[in-house]
Amino acid sequence: MTYTSDGPIPGFHAVIPAGGAGTRLWPLSRSGHPKFLHDLTGSGRTLLQATVDRLTPLTEPGGVMVVTGERHVEAVRAQLPGVGADEVLAEPSPRDSMAAIGLAAAVLAARHGGDVVLGSFAADQVIHGASPFERAVREGVEAALADYVVTVGIAATHPATSFGYVHSGDSLDLDGAPSARHALGFTEKPDVVTAAAYLATGEYRWNAGMFLVRARVLLDHLAAQRPALHDGVRKLAAAWDTSERAQVLADVWPGLEKIAIDHAIAEPVAAAGGVAVVPGDFGWDDIGDFASLSALLAPLEANDDNARVLGDDASVVRLDSYGSLVVPSAGRMVAVLGLDDVVIVDTPDALLVTTRARAQQVKDVVQALRTQGRTDLL
Amino acid sequence: MTYTSDGPIPGFHAVIPAGGAGTRLWPLSRSGHPKFLHDLTGSGRTLLQATVDRLTPLTEPGGVMVVTGERHVEAVRAQLPGVGADEVLAEPSPRDSMAAIGLAAAVLAARHGGDVVLGSFAADQVIHGASPFERAVREGVEAALADYVVTVGIAATHPATSFGYVHSGDSLDLDGAPSARHALGFTEKPDVVTAAAYLATGEYRWNAGMFLVRARVLLDHLAAQRPALHDGVRKLAAAWDTSERAQVLADVWPGLEKIAIDHAIAEPVAAAGGVAVVPGDFGWDDIGDFASLSALLAPLEANDDNARVLGDDASVVRLDSYGSLVVPSAGRMVAVLGLDDVVIVDTPDALLVTTRARAQQVKDVVQALRTQGRTDLL
Q: Which of A98, A237, B62, B98 could form a disulfide with A106 if both were Cys (CB 3.0 to 4.6 A apart)?
């Protein structure tokens, strides 16, 4: 994929939190090999690689940082030969997004000064449209330079109930960010009636969890809202590039508060008028389940059965089946006969057979396996 | 399983033709490892072993003979340590049932004289009820001693269209076989209206392809009906227990006519009044497809979802699924969510997902794979 870019944005650093189990994508996604390490679009690049590919042209060398769990560091480095070892931050245990992004902000501030703008982009989202994405990031950086916490609001295509929404207010009247508006507030996963009412106003967009903000501004907000967490990430950052890192991590990390950046900063700061929203008019999906994965994949061209195969089509025989999604990732032949909208995910040690309509309930299968003590499969 | 038997029947030899691919049971049944080598009932014994178990108490030592393809001889011997090497006849290539049973009859006649009674029982059928089975065999032997070709007619439980039927006439009035009647004729796989009309008369039974006949009588009929085939099996039998066997097999076998015993002997001899039918009032199935396999298996007791698992129940997670059949024979976890009457057959190199209603069409999957040149999976 080629990005037509106006080149790196001075002082901009991309931060990619790479975490989350993706239990609704079991058995493809596992705790030991989560969603972001997979090529879920058949593009030949994993979600993490595609995220880095998208951001690298917008940053100066060394400007992409990944924050991930210790157990994934090796896989992340193997997938990202272009990202330096110093730019992969390892978390000893999951402490939610505020600790991850706060640590990255503090390390960036220590290394480069607090005026750098960081943009945080989850490692497991799919985006179509490099040009509108870049425009959103450039506007977001401009708004961040005006000391706002900036979120990207995605043009909603339907009243989704599995996404959060951001409510846009008046324009910020910024020269470099003409589309940027005040963010009036956030709503998590509304019911479908509320979501439809939101869309009717034209003032609501999907909150994709992309934040752009000066390192200093983020840390100041964190100091005001969650002082203990602020002090913790500052201590970690001060020791990060020294021989003390491991010791300070062991001392400080386990005590850090587990909280999402949305609750810790975005919501309270929005209430105080400090959050901006820039529109993102690109295709976006978080591939939350197999139905959404199916919708992202192109139908097989040679057939008229509306089937999707993620992997080698030659490993799938379909007869009298319409709209199936097959993931033949175990290298075995998969034959499906007489079932519509079936989802078959074949992996070396576990097989899932369900339908697109049941995609959200795959987490119940994971829960059932957990109850049975089969954590080896999770 | 214990058989209550009155002991061996003097002069009775069981012949078990073990052949047939069972393509509607793919991917469980393969050409290299066909249906009869599998435990399809969860009893711990394969269909072949259960067939031998059933007949051994009715025969004298050395009285069970298996006729199978050369490629299956090793597996057959491994499964049947109690059957002597001389009692496993290897066919260089499939030549249908008349050649197989004719060869067995000729070898038995050469070894033991033509007055022995042979009973032919397919290796891949399931029978419930040792006592009524034994009664049918004992009556069948009596009728065979009166020089009839005897077939066992199974009490039909429904107007099946996938079985053949035998039409019973008047009693033979034999002292040792009070239930034996003349067989008036045979019908292969009638339509459902014809089958229902048959059942209404009370005169038709399923033809299970079990034949009992004196070796001499069978060979005489064969000489009259198919003289070339008769001469071929006689030549083979004369050389069988000599050093000439391989040479004669190579010379004679490839030229033998491919014909079923039903067409070669049962039908023409019935027309001439020489076939008898004895009733078999035992449970019988040929496990023709996964729907019939499912019907044979007991539902899992601990659950109310009417599911069947052939294999380790601990390898299957079922949620919101009713009436599923799962065969987890690859040792992997199989999870099924939100599908009723689904059939999932998991093997190390191939997976089938279908429904019980489509069970008969599994052969189309096999055909599709053949068309694709994937004979390695067949």
A: A237
Whole-number pLDDT of residue A235: 98
Q: How far is B319 from chain A (nearest CA, A)?
A: 7
Q: Are strands B350-355 and A117-120 parallel, antiparallel or unpaired?
A: unpaired
Domains identified in chain B, total number: 2
**CA–CA distance, B122 with B218 (Å, rounded to integer):** 17
Closest to B284 (Cα-Cα) out of B191, B198, B163: B163
Which pLDDT score is estimated for B5?
Answer: 62
Neighbour count for residue B320 (Cβ, 10 Å)? 14
Structure tokens at A208: 């994709």
Residues A278 and A303 grouped into a single domain = no
Nearest CA-CA distance, residue B102 and chain A, Å: 39
For B319, the closest of A319, A351, A365 (CB atoms) is: A365
Whether A15 contacts A67, CB under 8 Å? yes
**Residues B101, B218: Cα–Cα separation, whole Å:** 9
A322 shares its domain with A270: no
Looking at the domain assignment, is residue B308 inside a domain?
yes
- How do strand A204-214 and strand B64-69 relate by DSSP bridges? unpaired
Residues of chain B with pLDDT under 50: 1-3
Q: Which amino acid, residue B23? A: T
Angle at A138 between CA A200 and CA A64, to 5 degrees: 115
pLDDT of residue A5: 62
- In tens, the pLDDT along B7-30 reads 999 999 999 999 877 789 999 999
B354/A368 touch (CB, cutoff 8 Å), yes or no: no
User: Smallest Cβ distance to A350: which of B333, B362, B368?
Assistant: B333
CB contact under 8 A, B377 and A333: yes
Mark the ranges of chain A whose per-residue pLDDT is less than 50: 1-3
Residues A261 and A345 in one domain: no
Query: CB–CB of B335 and A351 under 8 A?
Result: yes
Among A262, A70, A67, residue whose Cα is nearest residue A183: A262
Question: Taking CA atoms, what residue in B is nearest to A321?
Answer: B354
Each residue of B295-314: pLDDT tens digit?
A: 888 887 767 788 999 999 99
- A1 assigned to some structural domain: no
Sign, CA torsion A114/A120/A123/A126: negative
Q: Do B364 and A319 count as a contact with CB atoms less than 8 A apart? A: yes
User: Count of A–B CB contacts within 8 Å?
Assistant: 121
